[in-house]
Amino acid sequence: MRPILALFLISVFLTPASAFFLNDDTTRKLMNRNTSWRTLRPTATATTSRSSMMLGASRFTSNRTNNNNANGINSSRRRSSPKPINAKDWPQKFPAKEHCSKCGLCETTFVQHVDTSCAFIGKGMSKIDDLESQVHGTTRMIQSQLQSTTDQYQDQYQDQYRHNTRFGVLHDDFPIMLVKGTEKNAQWTGAVTSIAISMLERGLVDAVVCIASASSDSDYNHEHDHQNEGRMSQLEPKPIIAKSVQDILRGRGVKPSLAPSLAVLDEIKHDPSIQRLLFCGVGCAVQAFRSPAVQDDLGLKKVYVLGTNCADNSPSSSASADFISSGLKVDKGELDNVKGYEFMQDFQVHVKKSSGDGDGDNDSDSDSNAIVYEKIPYFSLPGKIARSSIADSCLACFDYTNALADLVVGYMGAPLAESNGTGGAMDTSLQTLTVRNESGKEMVEAALVCERLEVIREASGTGKWQDFAVQTVAADGIVAEMIGKLPNEEGMPRWIGRIVAKVVTAVGPKEMNFASYSIDYHILRNYLHVISEWGEERGEASMPQYAKTIVREYLDRNKEFGELRDRVLKKRRP
């Protein structure tokens, strides 16, 4: 097994999903609760009253109308506005420099709050430790807390702590679920799009912040990615404020590069028609948005946050195009036909393309514009492509499961849809859904009432992942550079890579345990990155407690990872 795992040259791209494996006792407790997810059905009375909003979330609500002066201008808006930073100057003039995630905050007057809001400067992602309880009214249980309790208490919550440590706060009445959306032409089954549309249709929000494509907006494309040269504009992210179903539909599909979701903050603040908002975003953008200095200053009556799992984005759409052409070997003339790609649980990159482009599995649900999938084994990717394809901010991120969102959608903990004959196509596969608080519950109920979301079953998983995670880190091309080695120039021949992918998929962890493996791998790799870049003291200070707990588990139990850490530090020191 060890020789096979040593071939993990590009597993760096794995994206964790927010899901967990429940033991039988925990499952029975959840299924016996009167308010469990099984009681959620599309009924006219399913929407939860906003008056029952939890205390932790209510601290972020305010009323614009009551704060308006005689001219209808919010008092907070009369302050002198700081000057936003031009997007063309990224990353040199941005506070976090190379580790800036281009979330859009600094492109607005909210740049004045960057010191307390940014996920990559100051206390970094350790801010999650405090924000989690402020947002959800509680915090995740981690191992260090369990060790100080009685043995009986520890036994009772052993599985809950494991899942909370990795996947964040969970609503008391909801396990992580497997779901399907109903929207066609999405990257997956459209779960995020379906929920967002439902919130607008039910009148729960006035607008939705989401990421559309910049392909039809040449001015935006030029401003936000001046090195793009017109390539892959269909995957170039553009934040929009959607006020109609048609607007939301523009956000379908995953954009694989850094997205400035917060660049619309000033527009939201100055739009009196927006009193209730749904913000859709990834972990680093959500952390900045959740900062009281940002969310409170918007003066909204109600905010919902719908998050997605995220890891290892490209720094720009140009880098995405380079990865597709140089890493996946897609002909440059076919780049405009690529609709998206994902690093999947079968250790292959699934490239979604228009019909007639390359070998692939036909999408049975496609319309006249047929879709095909081309699958490239991870092991066939050149090791040298990893570093240029992943933004530095993603290497310093410890929030792939989106800890501060009310509701989270992911996929790495879900099974591939192999049984329906589609070969695990993205747009027929299940996704995971994590409900963190009452606002998240409201979103699920709205989607069920509108019949736009189908709950399939509770998430589950099998297989050990810890040794698997360490072997992946040890064979990672980016980690190799940290200890002075050069990554392999080329990957395996594809036919060999496919064999290896099938073997590793067969013997490795499945579903939710695969998600645990992916989360641990990314935390371990990124821990090595931050101590390599900033040293032990500053690097560890930027990490939330749950990430430090996971790292400590591996350092205590796995000699190989400890040796890797020592080699990284030795190379860093003069």
Helix-strand blueprint:
Layout: H1 2-5, H2 24-31, H3 55-58, H4 64-67, H5 114-117, H6 128-136, H7 143-146, H8 151-156, H9 158-167, E1 177-181, H10 191-201, E2 207-213, H11 218-224, E3 237-242, H12 245-249, H13 265-269, E4 276-281, H14 283-290, H15 292-295, E5 302-308, H16 317-327, E6 338-343, E7 348-354, E8 361-362, E9 371-377, H17 385-389, H18 392-395, E10 407-410, E11 431-435, H19 438-449, E12 453-458, E13 461-462, H20 466-474, H21 477-482, H22 494-507, H23 511-541, H24 545-557, H25 559-572
Parallel strand pairs: 2-4, 4-5, 5-10
Antiparallel strand pairs: 1-11, 1-12, 2-3, 6-7, 7-9, 8-9, 10-11
Helix pairs in contact: 10-19, 20-23, 23-24, 23-25
Overview of the molecule:
The protein is of the alpha+beta class and 574 residues long. Helices cover 37% and strands 12% of the residues. The chain has helices at 2-5, 24-31, 55-58, 64-67, 114-117, 128-136, 143-146, 151-156, 158-167, 191-201, 218-224, 245-249, 265-269, 283-290, 292-295, 317-327, 385-389, 392-395, 438-449, 466-474, 477-482, 494-507, 511-541, 545-557, 559-572, and strands at 177-181, 207-213, 237-242, 276-281, 302-308, 338-343, 348-354, 361-362, 371-377, 407-410, 431-435, 453-458, 461-462. The chain has an 8-stranded mixed sheet with strand order 3-2-4-5-10-11-1-12. It has a 4-stranded antiparallel sheet with strand order 6-7-9-8. Strand 6 (338-343) and strand 7 form a beta hairpin. Helix 23 (511-541) crosses helix 24. The longest helix is centred in the last third of the chain and has 31 residues, at 511-541. It is globular. The protein starts with a helix and ends with a helix.
